[in-house]
Design a protein that fits this description.
Layout lengths: L26 E3 L10 E3 L6 H18 L25 H8 L49 H17 L7
Antiparallel strand pairs: 1-2
The structure holds flavin-adenine dinucleotide.
Length: 172
């Protein structure tokens, strides 16, 4: 592919299955004491068998939908996962393990909370500091069942209003 996407030479539909509330959890670590070193990001997407099982059920649900009329009449063949060469049935769990990718919605690396492991308090102040707040996807304590852009704007707007009300931030 050389990095360029190519269209399939036939019409088709694609269904993407998303596991919103994954049980598996990744981590971000420092790679060294040098602040310019890139962090070590471990997604660990399918560490939990529960996540694999949920994605397998998602594929089964999509198959049930597309095998139901009227859409079933329009579909000639399932391309992916489909069947492996030789007609043997594919291990769907194995397919999930080899094809799952992270979506563009990482959250929770500076989780809000009141416990010792929380990075920011419920007012988004970095614990142990006086004048440092975080307002982005990193503070989410748990995954949401939606895309992140609007919630991130809401988090920023709420913190901004809070700081203005307390006289901690002046807008132009
Ligand atoms: C390809 C892609 C598609 C997406 N599609 C959607 C979608 O359709 N709908 C949706 O709701 N969400 C979508 N998202 C998710 C959404 O865009 C992000 O979750 C959201 O923008 C996260 O907001 P944030 O404020 O946490 O981080 P960001 O939006 O990443 O903001 C971080 C900011 O910090 C700046 N920055 C970084 N380092 C420094 C530094 N050292 N000093 C100063 N500034 C710095 C960056 O330039 C950036 O402006 C998508 C994400 C991606 C990557």
């Amino acid at each position: 592919m050389n990095g360029s996407a190519q269209l399939s030479p036939y019409p088709g539909i694609k269904c993407v299955i998303l596991r919103s509330h994954a049980v598996s959890s990744g981590r971000v670590r420092l790679s060294s004491g040098d602040p310019d070193s890139p962090p070590v990001i471990e997604c660990r997407l399918l560490e939990s068998a529960e996540d694999v099982a949920t994605l397998v059920r998602g594929i089964e649900a999509v198959r049930a939908i597309v095998n139901t009329d009227p859409i079933a009449k329009l579909i000639e063949v399932e391309v992916t996962p489909g069947a492996v060469e030789g007609g043997a049935s594919l291990d769907v769990a194995e397919f999930v393990r080899s094809h799952t990718e992270p979506s563009c919605h990482p959250i929770g690396t500076c989780r809000m909370g009141v416990d010792e492991d929380a990075v920011v308090d419920p007012e988004l102040r970095v614990r142990g500091t006086e004048n440092l707040w975080i307002a982005d996807a990193s503070i989410m304590p748990d995954a949401i069942s939606a895309n992140l852009n609007a919630p991130c704007m809401m988090i920023g707007a709420k913190l901004g209003r809070q700081l203005v009300a307390k006289g901690r931030w002046r807008t132009a």
